[in-house]
Amino acid sequence: MTETMSETTNGAEARPRWYVTTAIPYVNAKPHIGFALEIVLTDALARYHRLIGQDVWFLTGTDDNSLKNVRAAENEGMTPRAFVDRNAQAFQALRGALNLSFDDFIRTSADQRHPAGVRKLWEACAASGDIYTQPYRGLYCVGCEQFYTEDELIDGLCPEHHTPPEVVEEENSFFRLSRYQQQLLDLIESDQLRIVPRTRRNEVLSFIRHGLEDFSVSRSQARAHGWGVPVPDDPGQVMYVWFDALGNYITALGYADDGPLYEKYWVQNPRRTHVIGKGIVRFHAVYWPAMLLSAGVPLPTTIFVHGYVTVEGAKISKSLGNVVDPVALAEHYGADALRYYLLRAIPATEDGDFSLERFIRTYNSDLADRLGNLLNRAVSMIGRYFGGEVPAPGAVEAVDQALIATAHGLAERVDAAMERFAPHEALAAIWELVDAANKYVEETAPWTLAKRRTSGLDVERMGVRLATVLYHLAESLRLVAHYVAPFIPETAAGIAAQLGITLDTSGEWERVARWGGYPAGTKVRPGSVLFPKLELPVEEKFTAEDAE
What we know:
Isoleucyl-tRNA Synthetase, Domain 1; six-stranded parallel sheet; Rossmann fold; four-stranded antiparallel sheet; elongated; alpha/beta
């Protein structure tokens, strides 16, 4: 299974550690479905690593200190503080709306751990001789919060936002990125700094080989409108948003004072993972590692890069009116329905499309017809034929063995998929067990066995056979409930409740995933339908007017 780490703390063996973060989004607008993909993906990874017994710390938060936040506030006639406080609340509220399990939420403008930490990071880089001041003139995209060279533009426009960049001319502090070119190449080529998928790794290597140039790490207080973290010993400048924002991954852990979380989850932890979108790879895979090398701080071990969500084939754009509000969608259809779609229908390393029609078809097919119907049939038959008490199984026949064989090896398949950051593959493997159980129902025909049991035709043998079939269905559903818990946690709890059990959160995954763990004699508890069928076509709109 997943690589583990042997540790001893006060004489007791500690659980393997796993630290994971999302990127921190700008709060110039409410969350849209693109960020919902990232945070649900990261949540599923965090929940999975907890499930298999690891000591997980999951961080997310908001990037409050960007120039685009300042300009958005001005457009609404608000102060930056009032504006970012309001919008950051919408991102924090995703915890409830999308059923998230993050351990910490950091805000770069409101959390005192952060400015103290990034000042320490700045001073460490300066002590290494990697920060200097010079006049600068460049092309700046506020949307990307990034400088571009002429040859990086497409027809003179930002390649990401398709808008003309602003010409910026001022004296700034610079970071000696060029000093770390060969070291970064060595780290990435050796996979000491692992970038997933390989296509993104190759893009980063190509960018580095093209030659690294030093980059600006500050902006004037005047251009920043006084908003941001002041540069140490230079009150006329604030930190450039990326130097500021990237530091959150360690400032949230207490880097400023070398706190215990920083030591535990960063310095002494062999698994430090960032989950980011493809548009910000350069900052995370080049700028951030170089800054850490300069400061003498350990690097992340893995940078996982996911694709974008398109809406009915088009890039999300406020001007197109296709910005889907994930909160409204989850409120209408349920958080698990949205989580399932994002994790199953969109391969994590690729761009994936959202349309309401495809969402509902996936919901009906996978959740209502295949999983929901299986649970309803199994619980109903246990109630009808055994008074609601799951019977003990008898001898295993060939048809039973086929079902059991599908369950065997599933743990390894799911684990391998999650190590590849491929939850869609993990869910596909789990649904093979769901489908095998549905096929098993048709092949064994419990209703026929029940008739034979009451008709005088080999009553005893038919009773044992019916008991075996229904036990195997209950056991299949027990396994499904545990396997889907990282992805659709409310559904997992609902399945367990109807089976009369609780989800095992002990972390003893090898035992939990072993076939035969359902306790015979347990009373099932029929409940409401998990996923009522939805009708097509649909008329609802879930666009967010003020989302970016």
